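Lecture 7 notes. Example A: sequence first, then its structure tokens.
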Amino acid sequence: MPATGAHILARELRHANKFQVAIYAIILATANRINPWNKLLPEEEKYEMDEAIVVFSRKGIFQTKIPARDVRSREHARKLWPLVSSGDSRQMVTWVSPSFENGQLRRRSHFRVLPAPHAFNPKAHFDQEEAGRRGAVQESPEHKQAKEVVAAELARRLRAGLAMPWAFKDADASDYALEGNLLLGADQITTEYTLRTPFGSEFRLDIAVLGRPVQTERMIMAGVEIEFGHAFDGRKALIGKSLGFPLISIDITEMALAELTAEWANQVLTATTRSHEQGRRQTYMYVHDLLYPLYAQLPAFLDEEQRHQFLVFANDQTLNKLVRWMNALAEKLGYPNGAVAVAIVNGRNDQSRKMLERAGEVVGPDWREFNDQRCLRITLPRSRGLADLQAHRLHMTMVRFILSYSDALVGYKYCNGVDNNHPEDDVWIAHRWLPDLKTFTQHRVLPKRLAEPINRLMAMVSELHRNHAASQKA
């Protein structure tokens, strides 16, 4: 007998709390077609797709395809979000993870089309998911216990002067691991900390790691969220594209109260690279691409000067504002004159025009849509290591400026003066001559494009939903 929506609901809510069961029962009763777990109902089988299009990429809008088998996890799918179908209709799709039964593959991974409301407001949708998350966890003793023991473990380490190291590798972006210390520069651990997003919504961190302010507000060095199954996909995708600090997501699905101990907290905070069976893991790090240059552990031979460069394309007003902010930030943090070089590139003559176009080639072909006359070049000292607090405060505050207060496209050069000899490549590839072996080695360094404006992304998502709804109505 084929599974019904009710059977799927029952299977998915085996480990849910009473509040979640009640909410989803009401949803199913009032809107039988809603399916929040990205599971296919039988009549939707025909909408399975093996391939999707990544809407935004360095190659341009709708230019990059990805097979479902190449998506490694729900978290990876969120990083690629938004995704659309590869046909002419370009409908919004979600990635459905493979399912297993008794250790055997039951259903392969695939994409499926999302429902298309006639009007869709990403900000309102984010607010609804945030409210849903708060409701889903507020009556959960497991969530409360997990939050308390994780916060206590962080506070214990902070009092003892111990580091809280994390590390992971993004194979799509670099050959080199990202590493950091969650407690670098921290002086307070707090729970239930409310933040505002660049698009005007609020969300609440379960745990915030705070440091002394650079300007007026306390600096957020890191955040922790306790989740059931890394749920609330749309909300987490938008948060991941908005943050200027590392966010750890800890999955407590199927865990009992007795298991949520101080020992478990210590283990889960250091488990960012440990794999779960069937490719899942309990702890996941969200780090915006703009922070990759800060945390990437690059070998010294790639950049003898130990300086790297960010290329910012935005309107003139934003560029001028960033110049003032970055110069003030460098002075505030005690950098000597010239250590942080901030310069506008104006395409007023042939030579400067070539410089502007070369910068545009790094960030991607759509740079002219942001500013075809000027860009901002920010050259910074690279972090000297995991304990370099000055560099961390500089980079993290710069990232917050760009993500929170500007609609900017940001490119990257891993060292000052590196030539973009292969503009078709999305990731910088360095070659090193080994004289003893008489051969070159190849090294994938970091992406050339690090940031898209969040408001541009949200406008595109709204348009995709409107077009899909209009096509169904026609």
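Example B, a different protein, same format:
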Amino acid sequence: MRKKIDPMSGNVSGGKASHPARPQPAPAIDVQVKTHTVDGLLLPHVILLPDGREFPVERVYGSRRDPARDDALRYAVRVGGRTKAVWRRKDGTWFVEKEKGRP
């Protein structure tokens, strides 16, 4: 493969990106979330899966905007003693990522 030289910067390029591509997000599962408000903040309280299972949220660690998920708000929560994530879209719907190895 022939190397290319950028005349503006003088950088040498092999034609490939020097950084790996952003990984694709895992498939999303739409869920319902019961919420409560603390000091004006909307926080998840119970996560309801489509199959009817309910998971109480033991703790909310925080939230942040997630650009990989179209700027959805990602909440880091503790459910069943494990740290998980649940997202709230701009339209108010909620989702979780499908875990690897799960049907």
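Note on Example B: The beta strands are 4-5, 12-13, 28-38, 41-48, 54-56, 59-66, 72-79, 82-88, 94-97. The chain has a mean pLDDT of 85.
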